[in-house]
Every structure is written in structure tokens, then in C-alpha cells.
Design brief:
With 640 residues, this protein is an alpha+beta fold. The protein has 21 helices and 16 strands.
């Protein structure tokens, strides 16, 4: 066995054991002290001292290697977190926590710039206990962190409160003091040479940070910068993907809308090529849009489908015409499903009518385009119909002109011509004579008459100073037909129009006579100050008897004296005889009672009854004239 007094071998073995077990530095000095106590010679002590110094170097190197190994392990773990996690907050929290652990500091934290506010704010903290510190905001250049961000270089201070290299502010110093921090190190998060944040580690006691610790914190800051860049790239990618998804959805929706519009166009075009009518187009559009469709003419009259309110429809059609697109027609008090969409039907600037959609509160762009395209197709059909109608009416108008000019020349030939043109002159017709009251109206009257008859079975022609319309008799009184024609022709021509109607007639000669009667009615209306009105002979009182073709005396007498005749027949009274005597006596009650051989009170009572039956105006000049004429005609007819 080696003698410890003459050999250094035991001491050397002890040093090796200390190295193997990772003993503390102080334990190595104990080996040399023990040899001195045992009285080892000088050369042995020198050898042990040299071995101790070498062992301490090895010990320090091993400790550095172990620390470096721990740092590398932490960096690899951080890189693994960075690769595995998509949660930026979790990655940054892990980096700050490892910085605090590896440097052995009391706290660690990370700040990021706020571009909107123009400063930096606390993004992540670990080990912090102060709310003031956790909510600090640093302007560029303020405090240690502001200096790091401004210079893009790491800075460390063993005592922040006394370090004059930084620009101290009351708010920052208050937060540092409240957290109790003394020693602080900060390193920049660099990305392409630009500072995107600062990583800190701090102690609550004075401490000098070694270059290795600065390098370690810089490595962790680099990982944090990568994490931020990755997160921003992922956010940009997600935003781009979301934008692409939205664009794809828009493109698909647009493609579907275009395809639907093409199909609608093909279906509508096919209808036109097959000679469909306006009602067919309306039905097809209703099926395409899932609503109810009606077509109105320029005056708001329904051509097909359920009609809409006139004034509101006119305003909506005018709005659609001005905007050049379909408009929504919101009606007060109506349910949303009853609201209308209106699209003007135009030929250039001319309003041909309007298309009305009911039952679709909302229309997307595709359906709206289909609805507007349907109005174009409808305009085409209306123009075709009008062109055909004008051509047919021109040919039929020649027939009407020949009928009025020479009805007796060839009645059978006229009837045959009419039958070939779809007009049966052997059936009863009503003849309307229309005359405009000013020059512009006369120029537009023929076109207005053609539009008035559009879609009807009647014919019209210019004749004399006006226009003659021949309409199949449908049970409407001629006077009412004339009044309605006068009103609508005035709207169509933009000027007052006077219309006279003859009685219903059949056959060329009778129709020519009805025309003459209608013409006399027009003249009578003008004389009576009723220009712009419409009437038949029967509507003109005793003038109708004089102007009428058949001089309907019985009809006039019955219409004028009817209530008195019925009362006398029912009660056995003599109201008609009393009225005649009153007029014959010049309105004298005394002379009338002598002619009737009754008391004057009886005459007064009978005339009171006449007033009840005929009205209070029976003794007014115009009314009394009609009554006296009727009484005379009654005597002449032998019915008194």
C-alpha cells in the first residue's frame, strides 16, 4: 500500500473521485489540506497542489459542458415546441419560461411593438407579480427595452435604478420598482435586420450577466422571432386561403347565376321563336322566379295576369324607366309577400308597358337580371304585336273607309271583305266617332286609336276630321263606351278628345247611319260646351231625339215622364194632365185650376207630388223645356 507520507497517489485518487462524483469546488481544496495535516513532504504537496489545479480546470470544463448541454437541450425543446405547436401564445410562454430557468433569474418577459400606438407592450411574462409592471408600455428609446429596440443590440445592467445609460421615465421606473427588479438583461428579436420585439430576463438583486448568458438569451430570442414570423405567415396564409375560399364561392355563385341566366334566356328566346304571346312569357318568367307575373300596358291596364294599383304602379314604372332597371314597389300596409317588383318595358325611350312580379319580397342579382331580361323579351313581343296590329288595322281601316263612304254600292262585297279580315259586319257593332280638340291632338289621334284597340277585335280609320272606331257590341251602353273611349284616348294622345256613339247596328247601311248619328253627337257635345266628353244620342235628352237616327219618341217620353205616367197608372191620378195644363196656362195656378175645374189647392198639391217624383229642378228652364216637349210628343203620338 502506498504511504501517504511519501507518495501522492492517495490524494490523486481522491481528486479523481471528486471529479467523477461532480463534487463542489471547495471539496478539491480539502485534499491538499488533508495532505498537509498528515505531514506529506514538500515535493508531494507540490505534486498534489498541481494536480488539484488541473482537477479544478477539468471540473470547470465539465460544468461548462453540462450547462451548455442543458442550454442546447432547452433550445432543441424550444425548436420542437415551435415545430409542433400552432399556438403562438403557448410557444412564447415556453420561451420566456426557459429563459428564466436557464439564466436562473427571478423573472423573464417579452415585449412586442404596437404599430397603431407607436410603442411596445408586455406580450408574455413569467415570474412577474406586479400588475403595474405587467401592463407597462414603452416608447421607442425609453428604458432598457426602448434602447434595445432602438439600437437592435443586447444590453444588460447589474442595477437598473442607478444605470444612466437608459432614459428613465416615471411610469417605467414605477413598474420596475413595484416588481422589485434590479439586474436586467434585454436582447432584440431580429427578423431580417428589423427588431420585432425584445426578450428580457431580470433578477431582484444585483447581478452581472456573463457573455454566455447573453448569447443564450439571444438564441432564445431568435427562436421567438421565428415563432412570431411563423405565426404571422400562418395568419397571412389563413387569410389568403379564406380570401380564396370567398373568391371561389363568389365565382361559383356567379357561374351558377350565369348558367341560370343563360337557361332563362334560351327558354325565353325559344318562346319568341315559337310565336308565343305575352301571356306565355309572363307564365314562363313566373315559373323561373317562383312568383306571379303580370304585364301592363303603358296606361297601367293589365294585358295579362292580376292587375296592380294604377297610381303606385305608374310611379314605380317611371322610377324603373329612369333608373334603367327593375325597382321594388313597397306598398303601405301590405305584407312583404305582397310587395311588388316592377320593370319598365321599353322600346328605346318609349314606354310600352311594365312587368310586375308579385310574391318575391327579395330578388338576388341573378333573378333580377332574369326579370329585366324578360322585360326586353316582352318589349319585343309587344312591338311585334303592335306592328302586326297596325298592319291589320290599316287593311281593315280601308274597309271601314269604304263602308262609310259608299255603304250602298256593294253591301254584300263589303260584308265578304270584312269576313275575310275577321270582321263580321252582319253582327251588331258600336260606331264611335272621335275628334281631337287641338291640332297636336289631331296628329296623334290615329295612333292613339290604334293603341286603344290593341288586343281588341275592333278596327279604326281616319275619316273626315276625326277617327272612327268600330267595336263589336258587348252589351255595354253606347254612351258609357263613348265616355270611356274619350277618357282613354285623351290619355293616349295627350289632348282632349270628344267621342260620339251611334246606336248598335249591323250591316253596311245601318253602320253608316250609326256613324252619322255619332258624328251629330260630337257636334252636339261641342255646342253644349262638353268638348272632351263622350256620349250617345240617348244621353242628350230631347237633343238626342232630334239628332238620333231612329228618333226614339217613345223612349224619350218614357225617360222624361216615366215617373208621372207610372204614378197615374198606379193611383188613378192626373199628374200628367195637371202638368200639361200648368204649362199651357203659362205657369198660372189660377188659370190651371179653371182649366182643370178643381180647387187651386188641388193644383198645388198635385205639383208638389210632381216635384217629389221628378226632382226640385222640374220647373227650371232646361228641364221644363224637356218636359213640355215630352208632353207635346205624347199628344202627337196619341198616348195621352
Amino acid at each position: 500500500m502506498d504511504d501517504p507520507h511519501t507518495s501522492s497517489a492517495p490524494a490523486l485518487r481522491k481528486l479523481l473521485d471528486l471529479l467523477a462524483t461532480g463534487a463542489a469546488t471547495e471539496d478539491f481544496a480539502d485534499v491538499l489540506a488533508e495532505a498537509r495535516r498528515q505531514g506529506a513532504p514538500a515535493h508531494v504537496l507540490a505534486e498534489i497542489d498541481d494536480a488539484t489545479w488541473q482537477a479544478l480546470r477539468v471540473h470547470r470544463t465539465l460544468r461548462q459542458h453540462r450547462r451548455r448541454e442543458a442550454e442546447l437541450t432547452a433550445l432543441f425543446d424550444t425548436a420542437g415546441d415551435l415545430a409542433a405547436s400552432r399556438d403562438l401564445d403557448a410557444v412564447l410562454q415556453a420561451i420566456v419560461r426557459r429563459a428564466r430557468m436557464l439564466l436562473g433569474t427571478d423573472t423573464a418577459y417579452l415585449t412586442l411593438p404596437d404599430e397603431a400606438a407607436g410603442d411596445t407592450y408586455m406580450r408574455v411574462t413569467d415570474g412577474s407579480v406586479s400588475p403595474i409592471f405587467q401592463t407597462l408600455r414603452l416608447s421607442l428609446g425609453d428604458g432598457l427595452g426602448g434602447l434595445v429596440a432602438q439600437t437592435a443590440r443586447p444590453y444588460a445592467t447589474p442595477d437598473y435604478r442607478t444605470d444612466e445609460r437608459f432614459r428613465h421615465t416615471g411610469r417605467i421606473d414605477e413598474g420596475v420598482l413595484d416588481e422589485g427588479l434590479v439586474a436586467i438583461i434585454g436582447v432584440p428579436l431580429l427578423l431580417g435586420g428589423q427588431v420585432i420585439g425584445v426578450l428580457f430576463a431580470a433578477d431582484r438583486s444585483a447581478r452581472a450577466f456573463s457573455p454566455d448568458e447573453v448569447a443564450l438569451l439571444c438564441s432564445l430570442a431568435a427562436h421567438a422571432a421565428i415563432a412570431l414570423d411563423t405565426a404571422n405567415s400562418l395568419a397571412d396564409t389563413r387569410a389568403a386561403l379564406a380570401g380564396l375560399a370567398d373568391a371561389n364561392a363568389v365565382i361559383r355563385a356567379h357561374a351558377a347565376a350565369v348558367q341560370r341566366a343563360e337557361q332563362a334566356h334560351d327558354r325565353l328566346t325559344d318562346l319568341v321563336l315559337r310565336g308565343a304571346e305575352v301571356a306565355d312569357v309572363a307564365a314562363e318568367v313566373a315559373a323561373l322566379l317562383g312568383g306571379e307575373v303580370a304585364v301592363h300596358d303603358a296606361e297601367g291596364e293589365p294585358l295579362t295576369g292580376r292587375g296592380a294599383a294604377g297610381e303606385g304602379l305608374a310611379l314605380a314604372a317611371a322610377s324603373s324607366r329612369a333608373e334603367g332597371r327593375a325597382v321594388r314597389h313597397d306598398r303601405d300596409g301590405e305584407a312583404p309577400e305582397d310587395e311588388l317588383w316592377v320593370c319598365a318595358v321599353l322600346a328605346g325611350q318609349e314606354l310600352l308597358g311594365s312587368l310586375v312580379l308579385r310574391g318575391r319580397p327579395d330578388l338576388d342579382d341573378a333573378d333580377r337580371r332574369i326579370f329585366e331580361r324578360a322585360s326586353v323579351v316582352t318589349a319585343l313581343l309587344l312591338l311585334l304585336r303592335r306592328s302586326v296590329a297596325e298592319t291589320e288595322n290599316r287593311v281593315r281601316g280601308e274597309l271601314l273607309t269604304d263602308l262609310l263612304t259608299a255603304p250602298d254600292r256593294d253591301p254584300a262585297g263589303l260584308t265578304a271583305r270584312g269576313r275575310r279580315l275577321g270582321v263580321d259586319l252582319a253582327r251588331p257593332h258600336v260606331v264611335l266617332v272621335a275628334a281631337a280638340e287641338d291640332a297636336p291632338g289631331r296628329e296623334r289621334l290615329a295612333g292613339a286609336a290604334a293603341r286603344y284597340l290593341f288586343g281588341a277585335r275592333g278596327i279604326s280609320a281616319e275619316h273626315g276630321d276625326g277617327v272612327v272606331l268600330l267595336l263589336p257590341e258587348d252589351g255595354t251602353p253606347p254612351g258609357r263606351a263613348a265616355a270611356g273611349a274619350a277618357e282613354r284616348l285623351a290619355r293616349l294622345s295627350g289632348a282632349p278628345v270628344t267621342v260620339g256613339a251611334g246606336r248598335p247596328a249591323a250591316g253596311p247601311a245601318a253602320l253608316a247611319g250609326a256613324y252619322a248619328e255619332g258624328l251629330r253627337c260630337v257636334r252636339a257635345l261641342r255646342v253644349l260646351g262638353r268638348a272632351g266628353d263622350g256620349a250617345a244620342a240617348a244621353d242628350l235628352g230631347f237633343l238626342g231625339v232630334l239628332l238620333g237616327e231612329g228618333h226614339d219618341v217613345d223612349g224619350f217620353v218614357g225617360a222624361t215622364l216615366g215617373p208621372l205616367l207610372e204614378y197615374d197608372a198606379r193611383r188613378g191620378t192626373e199628374l200628367v194632365r195637371t202638368l200639361r195644363s200648368y204649362f199651357d196656362c203659362g205657369g198660372s195656378l189660377t188659370r190651371a185650376k179653371d182649366a182643370l175645374h178643381v180647387h187651386v189647392n188641388t193644383v198645388v198639391q198635385r205639383l208638389d207630388r210632381v216635384e217629389v217624383l221628378l226632382g226640385r229642378d222640374w220647373n227650371q228652364p232646361e228641364r221644363s223645356l224637356e218636359l213640355q216637349l215630352a208632353l207635346r210628343l205624347q199628344l202627337l203620338a196619341g198616348t195621352g
